Amino acid sequence: MSVSNNLDINAALEILEDQVVQCVGRRLSEAEIIVIKGAWEGKDYKEMASDGGYNSYYLQQKIAPPLWNMLSKVIGNGVKVKKIYLKNILFKLAQKDYVEKLEFSEVENEQLIGTTLIYGQLPKIKSFYGRENEIQYLKRRITSSQETSISLIGVGGIGKSSLVAKLVEEILTENSDIYECIIWKKIDACSSLEELVDGLIKLLKLKINDGSESLQRKIFFLLKHLRLRRHLLVLDGLESLAQVENFEKKIEYGKFLLQLVDVNEQQRNFIIVTSQLPLEEIIEVDTTLLISSIKIQGLDQNAGIAMLREKGLYGESCKELIKAYRGNPSELKAVAERIYRFWEGDVEKFFEYKTTLMGQQLQSMLNHQFRQPGLLNDLQKNIMIYLAERVSEELASIPFHKIVEGMKKENASVSTSEVIMALEVLEQRSLIEVTKQSKKQEITYNLQPVVRKYILVDPLGLVYKNFKVSINGLKVSNHIQE
């Protein structure tokens, strides 16, 4: 089923009227229905009046203005509903209604949407803001015959999983027959390739002879099954497999991904990978020509404001809040809920306290980065600590040459090339921010406020572990040689 191909005005009116009854407590009047139908068909008010037996002045001046105001509150989602936009808005409303009312039926214990089998649990999307450009861009990439895989990279809480879930939702509402099955595998419980393969076999309810099969035999069995159906495979949270210090494991993961991509090339399937870490830090085999990466940034200002309004926050200070938290949806949600609770939703009052609040998802990501052996080496930690202290003192970005000087002061044996490589890794992981105003200006580095707060507070004692207090009284500095 395709909503955009099958939706007619009567179906749209039925969905719309349900919304109006729920929000306003009344049904649409005959005159309002005439205006809505006329707007759907692109008619002017004279044509509407002629069709419905009403006076055009009455429809245009007495019915339409309060109708558009009412619909703006009911279905506008922060956007003013107007005659020329109504059809597009109703299409979106119908798509949302279609997804919410999808009947999941059990067919051999498999979920079914239209003719598409669903394996795994897609994230539930209660509210979704913005990302229209990203979704359209990803749709073009997926439908292109040139690619069969893509990876979405970004910090914790930035909305990678929600973005992919919304993308899948829109793909299904526009053309539910495009794939025979959607496979969504969350990888957070997997610590090895064998656990991932076993998890996929279990998710797909495949029957394998016994538990004594070798890993290679299991992979062969899985790939053979994947060739049978056209599928969209989502591997959500690949960073869980990161074992930086285990070269053999990284090669193993890379070969498996290449095998999955090879299956997709043969069958016109598609893989989407989400990860907090760039793929090259998880796998050793070069997949850059086969799996291209997109870095996911925070919400834009309009989407951020829509989110904050739903949380009860208003005013110009909301723009400053979005900027301070870099449009990170999970961080904005966490800080908005606290502002509403402790400051009655007054963002300006919150800023008077000059504090930075941290959400759970980003903190969990930082805990993982600092706890997992090999993910952050001593030089990378030192750079982050150096930036946290200096930015707090100087309230400005730190030029590249100062970072090099600072690291060499801490450890004379550190080379400039090592500092550059460390900075590049931190930038790829979105742990530091980079600014360069012009080609002639020196590159400068900064930390987003939440990351700076985490480092200076060090809530679990992971940041300054094996570091001692420096002479200026701050926690950081010389590494204790063991």
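(the above was protein one; protein two follows)
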Amino acid sequence: MSPRGRSALAWGAVSFLLIGVLAQGAALLGLGIEASVGAVAAVAVVAGVAVAAMTYVIEPRIERKGRA
């Protein structure tokens, strides 16, 4: 796998895990989020795929501009 693909998958995994951590933190703090495990997992998967896709597309452009 190319470094670009690995980077995109890594950012997608970070996004996936972040959604889970935020949902668990909100539940532990009693912030009134009554989401099921399935709903949180679905949102986490969608967020992970979206971030991975955006990273894969945008990363070369950022590198060309010298910001990475």
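Reviewer note on protein two: The mean pLDDT is 91.
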